[in-house]
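Question: Send over one sample?
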Amino acid sequence: QVQLVESGGGLVQAGGSLRLSCAASGRTFSRYTMGWFRQAPGKEREFVAVISGSGGNTYYADSAKGRFTISRANAKNTLYLSMNSLKPEDTAVYYCAADLRSIHTIVVDPIGMDYWGKGTLVTVSS
């Protein structure tokens, strides 16, 4: 089992940048495929990006391509999401998630990942 704690959220102006972090417990972080998701007020949780255990494979939602970058530092048990050119519609609670299944399996149903953090709020003002 792994425990996840997100940080780095806050208020930013449109066009700005932010980097989220997700700290994971345990000594097997590199075994987990990791993902970022978000949930805007009144909307369902949606997939943002996912990264393989080694960091060698990534997959993004269309809304994130070209603006967001998912990365990980296995030696630090930490997952990151760098967000650039932020828009008001990016406002949401951002969650990280972990799963032992391969990235190729998870991309079919990313919402079904096993372990979730409690989220960090990102607010983008216009």
Observations:
- The CA atoms of residues 19 and 116 lie 18 Å apart.
